[in-house]
Amino acid sequence: MTADVDVTEPPARAGELPRAAGPTNREALLVKLFGARRLTLGMTAHDRMWGWLGPLIVAVAAGLLRFWNLAHPHELVFDETYYVKDSWTLLNLGYSSEWPEEPNDRFEAGEVDIYTTDPAFVVHPLVGKMLIALGMAVGGAESSFFWRLVPALAGTLMVFLLARVARRLFASTAMGIVAGALLAVDGAGIVHARTALLDEFIMVFALIAFWCLLRDREQARLRLADKVSAILDAGGQVGRYGPRLGWRWWRFAAAVSLGLAVGVKWSGLYFLAAFALLSVLWDASARRRVGIKRWWEDAFLVDAVPAALIMLPTALITYVASWGPWFATQGGYLRRWAVENPGEGVTWLPAPLRSLWEYHVKMWNFHTGLDSEHTYASNPWGWLVQARPTSFYYRSFAEGENGCTTTKCAEAITSLGNPVLWWLATAALVATVVWLVVAKDWRATAVLVGLVGGWVPWLVTDRTIFTFYTIAFLPWMILAIVYVMTVLLERTEGRPDARAWVQWAIMATLVVIGGFSAFFYPIWTGWNVPYWFWHSHMWFQSWI
């Protein structure tokens, strides 16, 4: 797995842990640090094949659900009215600019170059809009397919990645495939992948960072096992402090990804804080398991301090670098503020950074003062059960209009997660918390960290917020379900009858969730359906 891993048998295949076949001390340490189940993952050709083929199959299925009729509707849906046009001018001018009054009809009709050169005050950073712009760089802004191309690609690839993440987290190829399948069919994942908004990209970079930290956890523990076993084999003892583990490339990569998450929206900062803490907790646990006596102090000095000195500056530099197009032009909003206002602001900063700081002051004032009423504003306590979903698009038609063959028809795109999946996930989160307290299972901590970074901070905010923000932590809701499934399977090992019941329950759960996804798919994707059919999906008044 890494260049400094020494094993006596042939090296493991790329991405898999080496067989614990070294000296007895090392073998025992590997079992302590990883568990016997993780050490056997990928040891057979069959498991290795399905470790890649299974995630690929569910990703292809997800791609079909996300790309089918992606260009419909050919309208700027919900906040696409901001992000698509901002992305187009960012692509063409290097900054987001103002548009004439009521530009949407003309833009949708193909008049995409009616923007002005006057800079627009945009309240989110650039990364998400740069990604949306990539699709339009390929096919232009005249087609709504290309507005949504990159979100659809990202949403598809994340299904593959989550399957790989869950496989590694739960040491089970089957459970990895289950996790990918659940993300493939969830409504929040489908709707966001088919809409050019920003929040999906927070999820993308957070999940990539989580994957990197899982790899870092394994790399660090392999190094720790090697170095501690070398001490023991030489006749020494584990002392008050342990060895240093060297440069952590995976943790560095996680910091870059988290900097990009912040570059999509500032709420990515919550993931940065939560994941950095998780990484240090994993390091402390590893040092405790190998017998380091002052493991808490050792983890702080040898792991936590270097982690802070690496992750925080790396994320900051990545974030500032993501403003590259704004720096490269003189026309962006407040780009020349420092030149035009000498002696004001943070005077010790270079002029471009002083202007950027002033921009951020205005962004901060906007976000902290955003408390206007909105029809679809929601309380985050209801997010986990999808109490108030967000309607992205709704049109009604009389008979004979737009192909309507009944008295009244409707087209809707509703950012509503599969209700069965989300309700089960909420129950699974409770079980995960209980199991964390009872069993001190590190996997439970890993599952809950996504909620700590993606949901908990919103509980204490006073600003106007929406249920569709849940896309950022959707993968961890799914991991909660899969975690409970995994624990039930583990707890019934050696009891064939009980295990068979668990397996049947898992299959039944997947079938039910898949069935409800088929039922809701038309109102996730804007099908033209009879009004009664649309209304049959509105189970609660708060869903309308």
Structural class: mainly alpha
User: Major beta sheet, specifics?
Assistant: 3 strands, antiparallel
Gyration radius, in Å: 25 Å
Overall structural domain count: 1
Mean pLDDT equals 92
Q: Count the strands? A: 3
- Percent of residues in helices comes to 55-70%
Beta-strand share of residues: under 5%
Cα end-to-end separation? 51 Å
Describe the global form: globular
- Indicate the low-confidence ranges by residue numbers: 1-15
What is the count of DSSP helices, taking H or I runs of 4+ residues? 22
What string gives the helices and strands in order?
A: HHHHHHHHHHHHHHHHHEEHHHHEH
The strand line-up of the biggest sheet is 1-2-3
Offer a concise description of the structure.
The protein has 544 residues and is mostly helical. It has helices at 24-34, 36-40, 45-67, 80-93, 104-108, 127-139, 144-147, 149-170, 173-185, 187-193, 199-233, 249-264, 268-289, 295-321, 324-328, 337-340, 351-368, 419-439, 442-454, 474-491, 496-524, 531-535, and strands at residues 390-398, 408-415, 528-530.
